[in-house]
Structure prediction request, 261 residues.
Amino acid sequence: MPKFAANLSTLFNEVPFTERFAAAAQAGFTAVEFLFPYDYPAAQLKQLLDENNLKLVLFNTAPGNVAAGEWGVSAIPGREAEARADIDRALEYALALEVPQVHIMAATVPPAADHQAYVDTFVRNMRYASERFAPHGINLLLEALNPVTKPDYLYASQYQTLEMAARIDRPNVFTQLDLFHAQLVDGNLSRLIRENAGRYRHIQIASAPDRHEPDEGEINYPWIFALLDDVGYDGWIGCEYLPRGNTLDGLGWFAPWAKKS
Ligand SMILES: O=C(O)C(=O)[C@H](O)CO
Ligand SMILES: [Mg+2]
Prediction:
């Protein structure tokens, strides 16, 4: 039985961020995820979660200087102190908000840069993060991003993040299987889901190629949800899509699973 989390960074964007918690709960979600919590005190976010009986199931480490093209700091050589401070801050938020997993953002790699140096830096910082988070039972996730949405990101293929997780070789490090990115880069989603069950601990969904509701495009999500049940996936499924129009108007696909108020 799939468990869905509303991504408040992309859904319910008709209202300000702090009003999206109530909107998600009223739409029948019991869990949420979003990109970054850092613009708000943890206590304020916890109150919003508690008031709406919502679990927070994922957020990311900080993105760095987005205006300068950065998308994560954990792989940038020479920025280790900043990356580890971001990891420590993410841990503080994860503990305060009772979050079971955090996506550690890697970095975009400038075309002329030494890619291996970025990989080696990321492995070291991930092992640092693993040691910080493991005593609290919190998992760390790596996510491949397709090169159209995010050019020059450290990894684009699911098979690269699976290999990276194996190289990091820590028991609380897994991949985040965003099926939108996976379809655009790797395809053969059934093989990915079947052959790597247990190595991904979070899933995100959106249509391909347009990243809208999961009721259009190339991916047959009802079939995918049944396959996920078949392989015993019991994690959350993050609804990280860009609504075609009003969020509520596009939630017909979610009706079978929405919590009835
Ligand atoms: O971009 C995505 O798909 C994500 O899930 C990350 O949170 C941000 O890149
Ligand atoms: Mg994603």
Residues 35, 60, 103, 143, 145, 178, 204, 240 surround LPHNJNCV (ligand 1) (CB under 6 Å).
